[in-house]
C-alpha cells in the first residue's frame, strides 16, 4: 500500500485554516498553517485557474503533494497546512517548489 499525505478536505476546514492560521508567502506559493491538538499532520492545496489550465494545475498539485510527503516527519503533530500556489509555480522546477515550500514551512511553523 502506498503511503499518503493526510488531506484537508472540507471547505470549512480550508476556510478555518486560511482565516485563523499563520500566513507566510513567497514568490511561488503561500502557506497557511494552524496547529490543533489531537490531529495528524494534514495538507491541503489550492491551485487556481491563474496558475494555468487543468493539466498544469494538476501537475503543480502532484508536485506539491510529493514534496509535502517528504516534510511530514519534520512537522509537529497537529499541524494543518494549506498551500496556495501562485502563477509562477506553473513554470517552477521541482527543486524550486521544494525550496519554496521548505522556506515557507520553516517560517510558518512555530516549534513546540
From the structure above, extract its key features.
112 residues, alpha+beta
Shape: globular
Mean pLDDT across the residues is 90
End-to-end separation? 32 Å
Let me know the number of strands. 4
Instruction: Summarize the amount of helix as a percent range.
Output: 25-40%
Q: Give the structural class.
A: alpha+beta
Quickly count the helices: 3
Beta percentage is: 15-25%
**Which sequence of SSEs, written as H and E, runs from N to C?**
HEEEHEH
Task: Show the helix and strand layout.
Blueprint: H1 11-20, E1 22-25, E2 29-35, E3 42-47, H2 54-71, E4 79-85, H3 94-108
Parallel strand pairs: 3-4
Antiparallel strand pairs: 1-2, 2-4
Helix pairs in contact: 2-3
Overall description:
- The longest helix is centred in the middle third of the chain and has 18 residues, at 54-71.
- α2 packs across α3 (94-108).
- With 112 residues, this protein is an alpha+beta fold.
- The protein has a four-stranded mixed sheet with strand order 1-2-4-3, with helices on both faces.
- Helices cover 38% and strands 21% of the residues.
Quick overview of this protein structure:
The protein has 112 residues and is an alpha+beta fold. It contains three helices and four strands, in the order H-E-E-E-H-E-H.
Amino acid at each position: 500500500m502506498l503511503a499518503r499525505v493526510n488531506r484537508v478536505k472540507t471547505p470549512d476546514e480550508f476556510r478555518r485554516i486560511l482565516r485563523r492560521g499563520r500566513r507566510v508567502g513567497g514568490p511561488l506559493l503561500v502557506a497557511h498553517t494552524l496547529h490543533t491538538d489531537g490531529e495528524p499532520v494534514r495538507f491541503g492545496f489550492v491551485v487556481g485557474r491563474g496558475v494555468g489550465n487543468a493539466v498544469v494545475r494538476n501537475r503543480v498539485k502532484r508536485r506539491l503533494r510529493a514534496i509535502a510527503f517528504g516534510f511530514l516527519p519534520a512537522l509537529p503533530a497537529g499541524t494543518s497546512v494549506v498551500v496556495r500556489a501562485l502563477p509562477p509555480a506553473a513554470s517552477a522546477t521541482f527543486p524550486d517548489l521544494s525550496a519554496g515550500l521548505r522556506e515557507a514551512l520553516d517560517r510558518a511553523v512555530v516549534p513546540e
